Amino acid sequence: KIELYHDTNYTQQLKKHEYPLRVDTGERVYVKAVVHGDNSRMAVWVDRCVATPNPDPEAVTKHSLIVNGCPCDETIQYHNSTVEVEQRFSFESFRFNSAPAAVGYLHCYIDVCRADNKESRCSKGLDICPK
Fold first, then answer.
1. What residues pair up with 86 in beta bridges, in sequence order?
2. Planar angle of CA 8, 13, 19, nearest 5 degrees
3. What is the DSSP string of 42-103?
4. Which residues contact 131 (CB under 8 A, 6 or more apart)?
């Protein structure tokens, strides 16, 4: 599940009535990918995140944030978490030039792995990303 937060401490989650999120260009958007439920043996890693000006994740106009588990937007910052069942990151908001409205849609795809599998994509993290 993808959750959005107001703050860098990930304590103020957006409520349903706060969507769509309204932010100024350049303001940070805080994202948490998490597995809920019986997750004690799970780990997560965001494989892909793309923003589009409409609900279609395959829209022609899009902005890639994360591809193949690696950041491709220079504003991506990863934030530490004490549990393996979540991954936290943030990025600076932006506006699509071709879209009159400031509304954007975030589409993220998450890998869920066994926490004890040291060969999994979740375990390798940013180590396999180009520097």
1. 34
2. 115
3. EEEEEEEEEEESSS-TT-SS-EEEEETTEE-STT-EEE--SSTTEEEEEEE----TT-SS--
4. none
Strand-pair category, 105-114 with 42-52: antiparallel
Please name the amino acid found at residue 28.
Answer: R
Q: What is the pLDDT of residues 43-89, one digit of tens each?
A: 899 999 999 888 899 999 899 999 999 999 999 999 998 887 899 99
Q: Which residue has the tokens 């990025």?
A: 91
Largest CA distance in the chain: 47
Q: Find tokens 């022609």 and name the residue.
A: 60
- Tokens of residue 120, six digits: 């999994």
- The two structure tokens encoding residue 35: 């597995």
Q: What percent of the chain has pLDDT over 70?
A: 95
Residue 8, token pair as written in the block: 């860098």
